């Protein structure tokens, strides 16, 4: 119909990467569960293994989709003492991966060897439902799964089963199917699953930049000029 489309790329990369790291740390160190123990009176005398989780130091991190956000996540995780980065996607990116010493591997190997799996890929027919029963079955029982891409990349029923039966240690999700997630959804009953309401880009600075760019796209479109960021159809 000749409708022009403007969009706002790049501006949310850093905010989403920061949120991905926050979600990973919340899940692996059981932060929401621990905070609830303080409120409910569960915090009593010191106990050696109470509220223990898993740390990033000397770990292997697998990133599904080493695009802008995946790279920004790796850049932030590297100072935590991560021993090795693995990644998978449509193809190897040796020049980009060199910064992190990351190794391109098949999805199955990434699942088997990673202590932490972070999903930052696009949702496509190839990635829809990619993280499923087979994928979680290959992960370590001590592994933590984080998704800040799109909810449909994950088979949520399979994720629930993996978490409920101790197949993996924990999960952190900023995206779900559907959104909002119904308050009676089984995933919300699990202590080892941290779910956020799709707030990856929710910093004041990022949302302001997105709004300005959207407005500039609109104004340029109304004037019949090239948009600062136009989707070429």
From TrEMBL:
<dbReference type="GO" id="GO:0030267">
    <property type="term" value="F:glyoxylate reductase (NADPH) activity"/>
</dbReference>
<dbReference type="InterPro" id="IPR050223">
    <property type="entry name" value="D-isomer_2-hydroxyacid_DH"/>
</dbReference>
<feature type="domain" description="D-isomer specific 2-hydroxyacid dehydrogenase catalytic">
    <location>
        <begin position="1"/>
        <end position="231"/>
    </location>
</feature>
<dbReference type="InterPro" id="IPR006140">
    <property type="entry name" value="D-isomer_DH_NAD-bd"/>
</dbReference>
<dbReference type="InterPro" id="IPR029753">
    <property type="entry name" value="D-isomer_DH_CS"/>
</dbReference>
<dbReference type="GO" id="GO:0005829">
    <property type="term" value="C:cytosol"/>
</dbReference>
<comment type="similarity">
    <text>Belongs to the D-isomer specific 2-hydroxyacid dehydrogenase family.</text>
</comment>
<keyword id="KW-0560">Oxidoreductase</keyword>
<dbReference type="GO" id="GO:0051287">
    <property type="term" value="F:NAD binding"/>
</dbReference>
<protein>
    <recommendedName>
        <fullName>Glyoxylate reductase/hydroxypyruvate reductase</fullName>
    </recommendedName>
</protein>
<dbReference type="Pfam" id="PF00389">
    <property type="entry name" value="2-Hacid_dh"/>
</dbReference>
<dbReference type="InterPro" id="IPR036291">
    <property type="entry name" value="NAD(P)-bd_dom_sf"/>
</dbReference>
<feature type="domain" description="D-isomer specific 2-hydroxyacid dehydrogenase NAD-binding">
    <location>
        <begin position="21"/>
        <end position="200"/>
    </location>
</feature>
<dbReference type="GO" id="GO:0008465">
    <property type="term" value="F:hydroxypyruvate reductase (NADH) activity"/>
</dbReference>
<dbReference type="InterPro" id="IPR006139">
    <property type="entry name" value="D-isomer_2_OHA_DH_cat_dom"/>
</dbReference>
<dbReference type="Pfam" id="PF02826">
    <property type="entry name" value="2-Hacid_dh_C"/>
</dbReference>
């Amino acid at each position: 119909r000749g409708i022009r489309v403007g969009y706002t790329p790049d501006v949310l990369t850093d905010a989403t990467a920061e949120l991905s790291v926050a979600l990973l740390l919340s899940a692996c160190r059981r932060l929401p569960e621990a905070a609830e123990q303080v409120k409910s009176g569960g915090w009593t005398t010191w106990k050696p293994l109470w509220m223990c989780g898993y740390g990033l130091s000397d770990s292997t991190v697998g990133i599904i989709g080493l695009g802008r956000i995946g790279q920004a996540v790796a850049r932030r995780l590297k100072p935590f003492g991560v021993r090795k980065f693995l990644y998978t996607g449509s193809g190897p990116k040796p020049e980009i991966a060199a910064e992190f010493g990351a190794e391109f591997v098949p999805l199955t190997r990434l699942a088997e060897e990673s202590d932490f799996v972070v999903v930052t890929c696009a949702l496509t027919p190839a990635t829809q439902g990619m993280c499923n029963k087979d994928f979680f079955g290959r992960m370590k029982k001590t592994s933590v799964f984080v998704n800040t891409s799109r909810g449909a990349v994950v088979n949520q029923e399979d994720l629930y089963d993996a978490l409920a039966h101790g197949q993996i240690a924990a999960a952190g999700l900023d995206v779900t199917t559907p959104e909002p997630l119904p308050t009676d959804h089984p995933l919300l009953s699990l202590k080892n699953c941290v779910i956020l309401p799709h707030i990856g880009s929710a910093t004041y600075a990022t949302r302001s930049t997105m709004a300005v760019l959207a407005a500039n796209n609109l104004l340029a479109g109304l004037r019949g000029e090239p948009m600062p960021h136009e989707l070429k159809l």
